[in-house]
Amino acid sequence: MASEDVVAKTSETAVNTIVNLAEEAKIAREGVKAPSHALLSISKSLVAGGIAGGVSRTAVAPLERLKILLQLSSLPSEVQNPHNIKYNGTIQGLKYIWKTEGLRGMFKGNGTNCARIVPNSAVKFFSYEQASKGILWLYRQQPGKEDAELTPVLRLGAGACAGIIAMSATYPMDMVRGRLTVQTEKSPRQYRGIFHALSTVLREEGPRALYKGWLPSVIGVVPYVGLNFAVYESLKDWLIKTKPLGLVSEDNEIGVITRLGCGAAAGTVGQTIAYPLDVIRRRMQMVGWKDAASVVTGDGRTKAALEYNGMVDAFRKTVRYEGFGALYKGLVPNSVKVVPSIAIAFVTYEIVKDVLGVEMRISD
């Protein structure tokens, strides 16, 4: 009997050992797969965000260039356009660019723009996902909030964080993109491309010049990107809960057209609030570019462009010399641009993530 007990205990010990070893092996396998799976998911999210940014920005590239030309049109500089004309509207401006510079002129600066917007968009979407997770986790730590969901205010905060991170990471590219976009064949300084512009600015103006206008950009990106995400996701949530006019299917799927509408509304709200800061940022970026900051007047004298001593000074001088309306120059083409651009970016991002097999969308 004793020998049977020993055999039974030995068998039980052996079985437990085998089970434990199997469990440890399983944990080890999952531990190896988890990081690689997470890395793949991160990569897919970044790729989706980059593609979304590139597609959306290229689709509206002519309007983007016209917007920048209009923002700078009142500065005393020959670099604004080939003949220093004053555009009378969006259609007239696009026609003039097409007539004088052709198709290439319509997309001038788009290569640089995409080189900036692709990583910017990738970082922005990914940062939003991570920020929203972190903010929601912190919110749920409060008593009585254990089952809380993302609210419009929390989404606004997550979007603001994402915008600041993305803007700061790619700002030098935005700075040189602005200069490449406004230069023409008659501009004294001719940047040959992105890297030539970067090296020239570094050599002639110093590293700090690459971040001129950063403060108004960061301040502007808080309401702009924050509202984009908050309005887009809140509208989608509202549609899913109310299902108005049959816009949402019974399985809570929202169609592409409806999502485009949500993105258009989000872009309109965000850019209207943040637009004056975008104008000031663009003007501050031009300060220090000596070839763009002067113009020969009618009597043959050289006239220097306005010098700004900071964001507040730029606001003050712009309103003083040109009126409050100058802060909204280029708003019409920008509105026409932003509506499809933001909509295309959001929808493209979600579609690409579906194609790549990423389970989580931004609203999840």
TrEMBL record:
Presence of the UniProt keyword Transmembrane in the record: yes
Gene Ontology BP terms: transmembrane transport
Alphabetical keyword list: Membrane, Mitochondrion, Mitochondrion inner membrane, Repeat, Transmembrane, Transmembrane helix, Transport
InterPro entries to which the protein is assigned, alphabetical: MCP (IPR002067), MCP_dom_sf (IPR023395), MCP_transmembrane (IPR018108)
Keyword Coiled coil listed: no
Principal subcellular localisation of the protein: mitochondrion
Solcar repeat feature ranges: 40-134, 150-238, 254-355
Protein name (database record): Mitochondrial substrate/solute carrier
